[in-house]
Amino acid sequence: MSTVLPPEATAGAWGADPYAYAVRAGRGPLFLSRGDGWLLPLEVERWCARADADDLEVLRRCEGAVLDVGCGPGRLVAELAARDVPVLGIDVSEAAVARTTALGGRALRRSVFAPLPDEGRWGTALLVDGNVGIGGDPRALLDRLRGLLAPGGLLIAETVPADVDERVLVRVTDALGRSSAPFPWARLGTPALLRHARPLGWRAVDQWTAGGRCFVALRSRRSRRSRSRSSSAEPPKSAALISSQRAAKPSGDSPVTAR
């Protein structure tokens, strides 16, 4: 499905009650649901826990100041901050940003497609827990991230462990029947991500699996001449909180059918 909604529509969906309730409680069940009964469980408990061994392998590969796109409850931001790594989380969910800051991390409630601090100067961008699907348009997201990173910057993305390349219109739902507004989402395996990334000037520098999760590291080929300007750049260590983008935050290897 190629339906694309504006970023503000997606932000509204993720600011809706089912996701906020789950983040505040630190547990699910929570799902992405489609009109035909397709359900994808979301790993709320893992997102709200401390960074695990698989997460730490991701963080070990980060370079320079880190931008966590769709940071959710903030476990990665908090872990990097505890190590004195300059890091900023962005998420469209107020509840997610609040939980991140409560853990001692810096986060802003903002879409990745909105103006952000230090555009063109981030060393690493993270797209984990399914956030490669943000906005339902992989090429638009990859192009935006290329502009946020410094020349030669690193993108670490988590992908579906299969050759999947699909666009869906989904809602966030919970076991009580609460549901968000619909928003576009994408699910990509590593081959599909690479197919979208190469024409935009990205090259794969690493691929690995851990705990059943799949990851790929991409490096931007962008030269300094094409570097985008940051209009109100703040240093990543700024005490100011920045709001972030997060069109969705699903995880899980494969959808399950509604019962």
Automatic annotation (TrEMBL):
<keyword id="KW-0808">Transferase</keyword>
<protein>
    <submittedName>
        <fullName>Methyltransferase domain-containing protein</fullName>
    </submittedName>
</protein>
<dbReference type="Pfam" id="PF13489">
    <property type="entry name" value="Methyltransf_23"/>
</dbReference>
<keyword id="KW-0489">Methyltransferase</keyword>
<feature type="region of interest" description="Disordered">
    <location>
        <begin position="223"/>
        <end position="259"/>
    </location>
</feature>
<dbReference type="InterPro" id="IPR029063">
    <property type="entry name" value="SAM-dependent_MTases_sf"/>
</dbReference>
<dbReference type="GO" id="GO:0008168">
    <property type="term" value="F:methyltransferase activity"/>
</dbReference>
<dbReference type="GO" id="GO:0032259">
    <property type="term" value="P:methylation"/>
</dbReference>
